[in-house]
């Protein structure tokens, strides 16, 4: 069994990708542009970085809402003290 590769470069994956049908294409434009849609440039990987910090912000907001409901009751008095004379 081979030791783990510290660089993350996988020669078998490189050979597989370089010998696939998409790289042997006769169309030079397709062959030169295919890298834009593989590996770290897939649609999902590009979308993942579109909203940095959104997950942390959503969790922080959720904690804030729960804490406000539990520890800070509504005491600003809407409807209190108007009596019967105010309709």
UniProtKB/TrEMBL annotation:
Organism (species): Cyphellophora attinorum
Membrane topology, as annotated: Single-pass membrane protein
InterPro entries xrefs: NDUFB3
UniProt entry tagged with the keyword Electron transport: yes
Stated name of the protein: Uncharacterized protein
GO cellular component terms listed in the entry, alphabetical order: mitochondrial inner membrane
A GO biological-process term: electron transport chain
Function: Accessory subunit of the mitochondrial membrane respiratory chain NADH dehydrogenase (Complex I), that is believed not to be involved in catalysis. Complex I functions in the transfer of electrons from NADH to the respiratory chain. The immediate electron acceptor for the enzyme is believed to be ubiquinone.
Pfam families according to UniProt: NDUF_B12
Keywords: Electron transport, Membrane, Mitochondrion, Mitochondrion inner membrane, Respiratory chain, Transmembrane, Transmembrane helix, Transport
Cellular compartments annotated: Mitochondrion inner membrane
Family: Belongs to the complex I NDUFB3 subunit family.
Residues annotated as transmembrane: 49-67
